[in-house]
Specification:
mainly alpha; Rna Polymerase Sigma Factor, Chain: A; globular
């Protein structure tokens, strides 16, 4: 039996009181876990890496929620933390550099092979091809494409999240879409 999700204001009200903080945090995790999981998954690609990043994300949220000032929407703040944690993870894994799908990483696996080998990836051939095309994008274009295509995030919210102008984000999305189209034409 599912309950109606709480509004961000209701969650924040619970999180601001010592007596309801833990309950509020559990509800926040329950409410945002899946969205943050898929957002992170599209950045780091594998389930295991996503779980690691998500755990770090929720630790940062737990420690920092008291400092949330409400200058942005709650999900924008959460996505920013998840994005930063994913990028930190990629950087620590040495995968931040732009590579083609056939270039091997330090472990000798291509990005395409990682996707195919991931037991948690249950997509069909077309989904795999799309994920391969997205994985080949430069980091910024991949972030913008994922936020716009999957999360349907408005450019204004993305601008806040990524600290980039709306015009630059629109250009990044356009370039990403063109590269993905070209990938499908090959």
């Amino acid at each position: 039996m599912s309950t109606k999700p709480l509004s961000d204001e209701q969650l924040l009200d619970l999180l601001r009181r010592d007596t309801t903080f833990e309950r509020g945090f559990r509800l926040l995790m329950q409410q945002y876990r899946e969205r943050l999981y898929w957002h992170t998954r599209r950045l780091v690609l594998t389930h295991d890496d996503t779980d690691d990043v998500l755990q770090n994300t929720f630790i940062k949220i737990y420690k920092g929620i008291a400092g949330f000032e409400g200058k942005s929407k709650l999900y924008t703040w959460l996505y920013r933390i998840a994005t930063n944690e994913a990028l930190t993870h990629l950087q620590s894994q040495g995968r931040r550099k732009t590579t083609s799908l056939d270039d091997s990483d330090e472990e000798g696996h291509s990005t395409a092979n990682q996707l195919r080998a991931d037991a948690w990836f249950d997509g069909d051939a077309l989904q795999l091809q799309l994920q391969e095309a997205i994985a080949a994008l430069p980091d910024k274009q991949r972030q913008v494409f994922n936020l716009r295509y999957y999360d349907e995030m408005p450019y204004e919210a993305m601008s806040t999240l990524l600290d980039t102008s709306v015009g630059a984000l629109k250009a990044s999305f356009h370039h990403a879409a063109k590269k993905i189209e070209a990938h499908f034409r090959q």
